[in-house]
């Protein structure tokens, strides 16, 4: 990460997007609101910010510090995912068309599928293997925070399943392993608004 903020594919910086979000997306910026890269970034920052505020508020009562630190790590991971990363090929019926999806977009998909599970927050993910080569075996490493009281093996299994399903549905990656490490616990708070 460079000192003056990371830059999206379209040229906007994460800091610009973050400031725009903080201003309540007002005044309306048509350049941001019509750009897919910017909208992705807005969405990711908005979701991560909301989750971390809820979690820190829920934890403030009696949990020790690690969760807050953990969430700073999550914000950094979300920002890192907004960098494009490697290009992952997708097949297209017309051989003249070359399509790819970015590694960052796949990591955002992993995060969204895990975060949709009640009691679970994704920390960061790593996609291991030669993603640029079709059919190469790919492993995914994920860290997560799980609410107190949830069964850790159940939660980890749910994450593994949700992420495997999402990757099978939306990518052509040959995923051979999804490993989930629970590295933090948090106080439960009301069920997520998954709308
Ligand atoms: Zn943009």
Can you offer a commentary on this structure?
This protein is α+β, with helices and mostly antiparallel strands. The protein has one domain (14-186): Alpha-Beta Plaits. It has helices at residues 14-22, 30-33, 36-60, 66-81, 103-115, 152-170; strands spanning 87-90, 99-102, 120-128, 137-147, 174-186. The protein has a 3-stranded mixed beta sheet with strand order 3-4-5. It has a two-stranded antiparallel sheet with strand order 1-2. The longest helix is centred in the first third of the chain and has 25 residues, at 36-60. The mean pLDDT is 83. Zinc ion binds next to helix 3. The site of zinc ion (ZN) has 6 residues, from helix 3.
Write the layout of secondary structure elements.
Layout: H1 14-22, H2 30-33, H3 36-60, H4 66-81, E1 87-90, E2 99-102, H5 103-115, E3 120-128, E4 137-147, H6 152-170, E5 174-186
Parallel strand pairs: 4-5
Antiparallel strand pairs: 1-2, 3-4
Helix pairs in contact: 1-3, 3-4, 5-6
The chain binds zinc ion.
């Amino acid at each position: 990460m460079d000192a003056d903020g990371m830059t999206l594919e379209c040229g906007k910086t994460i800091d610009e997007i973050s400031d725009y979000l903080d201003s309540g997306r007002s005044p309306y910026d048509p350049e941001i609101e019509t750009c897919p890269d910017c909208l992705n970034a807005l969405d990711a920052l908005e979701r991560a910010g909301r989750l971390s505020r809820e979690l820190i508020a829920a934890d403030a009562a009696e949990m020790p510090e690690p969760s807050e630190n953990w969430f700073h790590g999550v914000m950094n991971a979300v920002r890192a995912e907004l960098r494009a990363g490697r290009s992952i090929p997708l097949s297209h019926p017309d051989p003249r068309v070359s399509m790819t999806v970015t590694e960052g977009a796949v990591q955002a998909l992993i995060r969204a599928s895990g975060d949709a599970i009640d009691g679970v927050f994704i920390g960061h993910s790593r996609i291991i293997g030669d993603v640029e080569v079709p059919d190469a075996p790919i492993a995914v490493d994920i860290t997560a925070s799980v609410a107190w009281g949830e069964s850790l093996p159940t939660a980890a299994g749910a994450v593994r399943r949700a992420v495997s399903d999402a990757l099978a549905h939306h990518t052509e990656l040959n995923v051979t392993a999804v490993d989930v490490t629970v590295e933090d616990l948090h106080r439960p708070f009301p069920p997520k608004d998954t709308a």
